[in-house]
Design brief:
Helix content is 19%, strand content 25%. The chain has helices spanning 72-79, 135-144, 236-242, 252-265, 291-299, 316-322, 352-370, and strands spanning 3-4, 33-36, 40-47, 59-66, 87-89, 95-96, 102-109, 114-119, 125-130, 147-148, 169-170, 173-174, 179-186, 191-196, 215-226, 304-306, 312-314, 330-332, 335-337, 344-346, 379-380. Helix 3 (236-242) packs across helix 4 (252-265).
Length: 381
């Protein structure tokens, strides 16, 4: 079972809870038949499109909302009464739902809570987070608490439970930098398991969770350092927004505001543009390239960089632009290139089939014009 997304207001378990303000993103759909259970709500034929940032797709055979992770075995028993493997939907910011919908059970994890869980031997602070907790709220909380390690992830939508699925990262930080432990439901063993970061197989936008539906993330533990200053600013655009040299460390709240400024300029903060909000952010990964391709692309002044996993990659946005796709360009009815960034956005009349067709059109044209194969980041449900 796999998270798709990419989360009580504070944890009431042992340890000092952080206070947060992360209400569930919108009420469940009113149409559809609801069954109220003690700890879960079940909605049959629930529309999924309003639960995704693209606003596309058909209904779920059953949508099950879970508030207490201890009740997960109960969800499993209920999900087993539906055909196919159950899937998990976070905030729907990285998923394209089929026009026909989903015939299996869909879990919406609504577990929330963040707490300090002690310290590591080297003095880092352990922070335990429920999988349904909004990543944006977690990042804001860590900044307010003077903890560094996640500040560059500000503005990324979705739930914290989605972060290890594709090793979410931005502007020099990624989940692998701070993740210590994941508690997950193991569908094969039919029980909860604890996995350390190494067992999660985190790579560039991938993990064991991305490649299999065996596990569902229930909670996570991160290790962060106390500091008033951010990690070194390694991206020139962020450094320019701060008017500091690359490599500088600045107050946490200042770097967060700079990252938000850069993200908004690209339309990569939901709700910031008013015209391009039906988006999944970056549709394509920055593709890995061979040494020969790297030399050729550098000669064309392409942004080629070495990533933390050791791979050499080129910007997908640069490739899309080189393939002749201009901003605002229509691709298929209801789908076009964003007004601010070289990615795809949906408009009125968009369908899942049309969006997938647009993805393929961009893929084929980039391959024809540049010789580089793009890989989609979207989870297709």
């Amino acid at each position: 079972m796999q998270w798709h997304g990419q989360p009580s207001r504070s944890s009431q378990t042992e340890g000092r809870p952080f206070t947060t303000a992360s209400p569930l993103a919108g009420p469940p759909p009113r149409n559809g038949i609801q069954e109220k259970q003690e700890h879960m709500r079940v909605i049959h034929e629930a529309p999924l499109a309003p639960m995704t940032t693209l606003g596309i797709g058909g209904p779920a055979a059953a949508l099950i909302e879970l508030h207490d992770p201890a009740d997960f075995p109960e969800f499993v028993a209920l999900a087993d009464t539906f055909p196919g493997e159950p899937v998990c939907l976070g905030e729907g910011s990285n998923v394209l739902v089929s026009d026909a919908g989903c015939h299996s059970a869909v879990l919406r994890m609504s577990t929330k809570g963040v707490r300090m869980a002690g310290n590591t031997a080297d003095g880092r602070v352990l922070v335990e987070v429920q999988a349904g907790h909004l990543l944006a709220d977690l990042v804001a909380t860590t900044i307010a608490e003077g903890l560094t390690g996640m500040e560059m992830l500000v503005g990324i939508p979705g739930t914290t439970g989605a972060t290890p699925i594709q090793n979410v990262g931005a502007y020099g930080q990624e989940t692998a930098d701070t993740l210590v432990q994941v508690t997950a439901w193991d569908r094969t063993l039919r029980r909860m398991v604890t996995m350390d970061a190494a067992e999660c197989g985190l790579g560039h936008r991938t993990s064991v969770f991305k490649r299999s539906r065996r596990w569902t993330v229930l909670s996570l533990v991160f290790a962060l350092r106390r500091s008033e200053l951010s990690a070194p600013v390694t991206y020139r655009t962020v450094a320019a927004a701060l008017d500091v040299p690359v490599g500088s460390r600045v107050p946490l709240d200042e770097v967060a505001q700079a990252v938000l400024t850069v993200r908004r300029s690209k339309g990569m903060v939901l709700g910031c543009s008013g015209t391009d909000d039906r988006s999944v952010g970056s549709v394509f990964l920055s593709p890995e390239i061979s040494p020969a391709q790297a030399d050729s692309l550098r000669a064309r002044h392409a942004p080629v960089n070495r990533f933390p996993d050791g791979s050499v990659r080129v910007s997908a946005s640069w490739l899309i632009r080189q393939a002749g796709f201009g901003l605002r360009r229509p691709i298929v009815p209801g789908v076009r290139i964003s007004s601010l960034h070289y990615t795809l956005v949906a408009e009125e009349g968009a369908t899942a089939a049309g969006f997938r067709q647009a993805v393929d059109i961009v893929f084929q044209e980039v391959l024809r014009r540049t010789g580089v194969r793009l890989t989609s980041e979207i989870d297709f449900l």
